[in-house]
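Example record for the data management plan.
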Amino acid sequence: MTPTLDSNDERFREAVRRARQMSPEERILEGVRMFDEACANIRYSIRSHFSGAADEDVEALARMVIRFADRRGLI
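Corresponding structural encoding:
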């Protein structure tokens, strides 16, 4: 199923509602959890494209992706 704009809007509203119920500490922890999950997804994607890459190479590429996204204001 392809998400529609309406379903994405609803997901966003639900995420905002949940965030408003969290304490500041919980929000920080959730942000760290989300960042860790995003990093794991980046590593997974790199491994799917470069299956023979060494762990050090995967980490170096992941850092490059994160720096690239950060410079462009994507994260």
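Summary line stored alongside the record: Helices lie at 5-21, 24-49, 55-71.
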